[in-house]
């Protein structure tokens, strides 16, 4: 290894030059060297030196400033590892402002401004108290110079632009702070800065207004002045929102608000009236949009203040005027669109680029108007919740603001007018919509399905959202006007397709309001059935809307009797043979078919007659679709149908399965689609139960591919693959196929991951143990018990309980299949794998913790986990008492104890913990185990006769039924049970679990009989009744003995 490269100016420049080269090797070496220097004092100062050296190539200076920015992020804080020294930070900080005030390269200046913002957030006001004074001084001086020279002083213009950029990034950083200290720092300096910025803004607006009004416009100079005023505006926006708790109380905000309210409409009109270059028009538009952002940010963050600021009602009225005017333009354009649909000429109207840009701009302003109205409605009916204490003045302001908007803005006439504008102007499809429909049907349909989330950026989704807000919050006002809109359907000309589509859109969106006034069943039968049969050009638009409307109404109010009609309509709309059922219509019908099926009042019997044909059409649609998102959506529809059909899906399973392998291959690395395929297979397997075995040849390879370590897809597909795997094992009848068993080792690998999927992995192991216990014991016990031992002590009690239950089942299976010999094999492995060692260690820990008291008392392990551990030991005792004592002997030897010493503390803990066992079956199981220990005739159990009798009395009294005779946990078979039948087939695993329960001593052996038998046996093997009483019963408390005698077991 060579000597380290010393850190100096020359070597740093060489490293920066190498980092900017085209050679990847040089870049890697340079990056490693720069990273090595990060730990050396002076490195960051040298980077700043390189940035300040303007004779260097821009590429080197760029890498220097970017690296310095990353260093500020990582090492500026005092607590950071390898933090910058205080002296170095002072040196860097002292040159941050001066380094870019006159920087000619804009990108480099922006990066330095970002650094200033980050440093100010960390350093102001303690270590950099004068930063805002310095910045504002530069801004004032440069602003005065530009105003005096009418913008011709280029140096002053550059300094003003750079200083405003720095201030913008500083304010951005402070505005994003959530700490009270950070907010307070910004609020303390906001009033002064806002005054400075207001002066800059007004001066430069006046400058560029004068320049633009001249006959010979100095374009470049006007653009510079407009860029400065725009920068000032952007900073003011953030200060007004983040710099005040109550902006309406600040005089400077009120002045700025009034000014901006005047400017927004002056600029809006000037954009249309002023004859200027496209660049100037673009900057004018940016001013209007950014002023609109001020209003939007305030209504989102200071709802009451927005209403109380001067001129807000007039402002809202002007914005709505823009909405109306732009809507009229759209409505006029729609007439040409209708003419084109009906085959007539549209006049050949083609807007030039300027008009298109102007139309887009006005649509943005109209969108802002709609968002303002949405914010106002939210303020009235759904105000922003806060945990902050509100003073009396603030509460009064909120009340005043709410009353103002409710009574003066949203009057019944205004609400009705807004609804009508939205329906008649903005719900009408545009020419561009129809072109997208025709050119890219799948992409267009997908974008419209998801458009509702884009309401802040797209005007159609925003119009629908605003319509919903009005309908939900003004039901009484809009009910009758909406019915009037509905009744207008009869008067709409047959060829006025777009207007009819808009009306139907409103009926669908207003379902939650109209359902009390509109008989949709009648509307369905008398109108919609006829609409979907019209073969006129353009009626594919109506067909699509009918499908959407049904999807919107089906969960609100469509009677069960009308459901077959719904399915017939959807069946008709899915018919590819009808020319008007284009791809968009059929995809829309498929997606809304899902809504018709996946809802509360769905009745399978009314859907069954249509299943076969609908399945065929959906399958054909999947094969026709090309885009992944479209196919995923269709698979989701089929998945819902599979869920609803349950075991009846067998008839259609072959057709579903046939299309999946090609789809899997076609998806390549598109893991989302592969997840959808695994999901549909899971539903199919779960529905088909035992009949799903015929598809194992496809399912098993997919599971293997998805869970195999190193496959590259495990990280994406593991969760869905585990769901499919679990469903497959549960649905498999015994005996399991070798292919399914060969998957088991992958579960061991998944357990070692110990990820969030561990619980499901353990549940699959549990299902495997039920399905093929012999194979698991013979082939996988070593790896399984070792993995279990590794997991013990690291899991939540609920997950640990799954492991103990699995081991319990394996113990019972070993006893049943191989008797004592198999038990010995399992027992030896449980000890050698450290599994039982850890079990006993935890119980010992619990025992020792329970011995401690006072302030130094230790906390024992979780009671639920201790109960599960004792229940596992109980299963070992029930399997073979001698086997249990042998296991205890082996474990005791490992811990340096005798078996008697070991059992003494173990029984102390066991009996002591018995009262913490809550479930009757676990109490009975542990009671059985403690009772059967009498078979050992050892002193350590006979001495516990009193504890045993307390347990016996408690358990028997708890389990006896109302007659005081039978054990309530013993499941007695009767004819009534046999007559109780389930309509569908059981899963094979459910059958296996029932069999497991039916052979469990807890549910087959009466507790009283077992206790009586074991007690009599103990008496006979220990000298008979009299000797037993003299030696052991004499130690039992009389009251305990009396309570036990009431059981009449002896």
Automatic annotation (TrEMBL):
One Pfam family it belongs to: IBN_N
BP term (GO), one: protein import into nucleus
Primary localization: nucleus
SMART domains to which the protein is assigned, alphabetical: IBN_N
Annotated PROSITE patterns: IMPORTIN_B_NT
Highest taxon, organism lineage: Eukaryota
A GO cellular component annotation in the UniProt record: cytosol
Annotated GO MF terms: small GTPase binding
Gene3D superfamilies linked to this entry: Leucine-rich Repeat Variant
Domain Importin N-terminal: 30-102
Keywords: Nucleus, Transport
Coiled-coil residue spans: none
Compartment(s) where it occurs, according to its Swiss-Prot or TrEMBL record: Nucleus
Family: Belongs to the importin beta family.
Protein name: Armadillo-type protein
């Amino acid at each position: 290894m060579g000597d380290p490269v010393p850190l100096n100016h020359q070597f740093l420049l060489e490293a920066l030059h190498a980092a900017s080269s085209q050679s990847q090797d040089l870049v890697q070496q340079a990056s490693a060297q720069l990273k090595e220097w990060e730990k050396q004092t002076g490195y960051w100062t040298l980077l700043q030196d390189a940035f300040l050296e303007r004779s260097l190539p821009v590429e080197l200076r760029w890498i220097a400033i970017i690296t310095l920015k990353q260093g500020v992020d990582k090492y500026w804080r005092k607590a950071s590892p390898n933090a910058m020294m205080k002296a170095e930070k002072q040196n860097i900080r002292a040159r941050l402002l001066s380094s870019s005030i006159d920087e000619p390269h804009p990108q480099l200046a922006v990066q330095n401004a970002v650094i200033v913002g980050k440093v100010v957030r960390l350093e102001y006001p303690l270590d950099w108290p004068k930063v805002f004074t310095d910045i504002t001084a530069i801004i004032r001086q440069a602003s005065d110079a530009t105003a005096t020279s009418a913008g011709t002083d280029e140096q002053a213009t550059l300094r003003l632009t750079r200083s405003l950029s720095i201030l913008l990034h500083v304010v951005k950083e402070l505005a994003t702070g959530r700490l009270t200290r950070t907010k307070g720092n910004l609020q303390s300096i906001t009033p002064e800065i806002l005054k400075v910025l207001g002066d800059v803004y007004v001066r430069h607006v006046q400058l560029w207004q004068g320049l633009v009004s001249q006959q010979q416009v100095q374009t470049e100079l006007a653009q510079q002045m407009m860029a400065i005023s725009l920068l000032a505006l952007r900073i003011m926006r953030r200060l007004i929102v983040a710099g005040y708790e109550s902006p309406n109380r600040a005089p400077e905000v009120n002045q700025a608000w009034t000014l901006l309210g005047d400017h927004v409409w002056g600029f809006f009109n000037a954009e249309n009236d002023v004859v200027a270059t496209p660049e100037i028009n673009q900057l004018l538009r940016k001013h209007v949009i950014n002023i609109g952002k001020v209003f939007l940010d305030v209504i989102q963050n200071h709802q009451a203040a927005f209403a109380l600021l001067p001129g807000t009602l007039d402002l809202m009225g002007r914005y709505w005027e823009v909405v109306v005017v732009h809507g009229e333009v759209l409505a006029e354009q729609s007439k040409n669109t209708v003419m084109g649909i009906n085959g007539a000429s549209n006049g050949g109207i083609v807007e030039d680029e300027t008009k298109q840009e102007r139309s887009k701009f006005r649509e943005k302003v109209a969108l802002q108007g709609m968002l303002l109205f949405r914010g106002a409605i939210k303020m009235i009916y759904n105000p922003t919740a806060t945990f902050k204490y509100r003073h009396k003045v603030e509460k009064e302001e909120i009340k005043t603001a709410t009353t103002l908007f409710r009574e003066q803005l949203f009057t019944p006439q205004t609400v009705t007018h807004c609804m009508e504008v939205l329906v008649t102007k903005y719900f009408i499809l545009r020419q561009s919509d129809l072109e997208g429909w025709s050119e890219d049907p799948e992409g267009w349909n997908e974008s419209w399905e998801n458009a509702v989330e884009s309401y802040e950026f797209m005007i159609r989704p925003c119009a629908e959202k605003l319509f919903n807000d009005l309908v939900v919050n003004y039901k009484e006002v809009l009910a009758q006007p909406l019915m009037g809109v509905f009744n207008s359907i009869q008067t709409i000309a047959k060829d006025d397709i777009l207007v009819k589509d808009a009306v139907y859109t409103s009926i669908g969106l207003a379902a939650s309001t109209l359902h009390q006034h509109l008989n949709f069943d009648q509307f369905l039968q008398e109108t919609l059935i006829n609409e979907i049969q019209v073969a006129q050009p353009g009626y594919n638009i109506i067909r699509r809307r009918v499908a959407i409307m049904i999807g919107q109404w089906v969960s609100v109010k469509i009677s069960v009797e009308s459901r077959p009609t719904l399915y017939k309509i959807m069946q008709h709309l899915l018919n590819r043979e009808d020319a008007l059922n284009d791809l968009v219509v059929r995809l829309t019908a498929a997606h809304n078919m899902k809504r018709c099926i996946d809802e509360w009042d769905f009745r399978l019997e009314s859907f069954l007659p249509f299943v076969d044909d609908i399945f065929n059409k959906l399958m054909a649609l999947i094969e026709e679709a090309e885009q992944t998102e479209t196919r995923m959506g269709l698979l989701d529809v089929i998945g819902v149908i599979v869920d609803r059909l349950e075991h009846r899906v067998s008839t259609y399973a072959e057709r579903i399965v046939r299309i999946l392998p090609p789809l899997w291959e076609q998806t390549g690395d598109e893991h989302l689609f592969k997840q959808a395929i695994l999901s549909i297979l899971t539903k199919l397997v779960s529905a088909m139960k035992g009949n799903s075995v015929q598809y194992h040849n496809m399912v098993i390879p997919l599971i293997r591919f998805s869970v195999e370590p190193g496959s590259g897809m495990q990280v994406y597909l593991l969760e869905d693959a585990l769901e499919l795997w679990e469903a497959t094992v549960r649905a498999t009848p015994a005996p399991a196929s070798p292919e399914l068993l060969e998957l088991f080792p992958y579960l061991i690998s998944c357990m070692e991951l110990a990820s969030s999927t561990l619980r499901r992995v353990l549940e699959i192991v549990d299902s495997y143990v039920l399905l093929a216990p012999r194979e698991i014991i013979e082939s996988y016990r070593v790896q399984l018990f070792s993995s279990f031992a590794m997991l013990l002590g690291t899991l939540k009690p609920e997950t640990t309980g799954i492991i103990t239950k699995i081991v319990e089942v394996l113990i019972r299976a070993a006893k049943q299949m191989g008797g004592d010999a198999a038990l010995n094999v399992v027992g030896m492995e449980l000890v050698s794998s450290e599994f039982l060692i850890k079990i006993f260690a935890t119980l010992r820990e619990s025992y020792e913790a329970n011995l401690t008291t006072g302030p130094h008392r230790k906390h024992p392990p979780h009671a639920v986990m201790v109960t599960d551990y004792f229940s596992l030991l109980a299963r070992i005792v029930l399997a073979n008492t001698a086997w249990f004592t042998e296991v205890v002997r082996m474990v005791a030897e490992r811990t340096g104890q005798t078996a008697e010493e070991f059992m003494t503390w173990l029984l102390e803990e066991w009996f002591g913990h018995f009262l913490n066992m809550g479930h009757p079956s676990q109490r009975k199981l542990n009671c059985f185990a403690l009772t059967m220990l009498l078979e050992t005739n050892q002193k350590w159990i006979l001495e516990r006769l009193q504890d045993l009798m307390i347990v016996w009395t408690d358990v028997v009294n708890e389990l006896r039924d109302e007659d005081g005779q039978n054990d309530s946990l013993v499941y007695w078979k009767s004819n009534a049970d046999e007559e109780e039948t389930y309509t569908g087939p059981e899963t094979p695993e459910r059958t296996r679990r029932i069999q497991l329960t039916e052979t469990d001593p807890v549910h087959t052996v009466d507790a009283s009989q077992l206790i009586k038998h074991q007690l009599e046996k103990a008496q006979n093997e220990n000298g008979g009744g009299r000797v037993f009483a003299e030696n052991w019963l004499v130690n039992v408390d009389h009251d305990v003995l009396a309570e036990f005698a009431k059981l009449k077991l002896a």
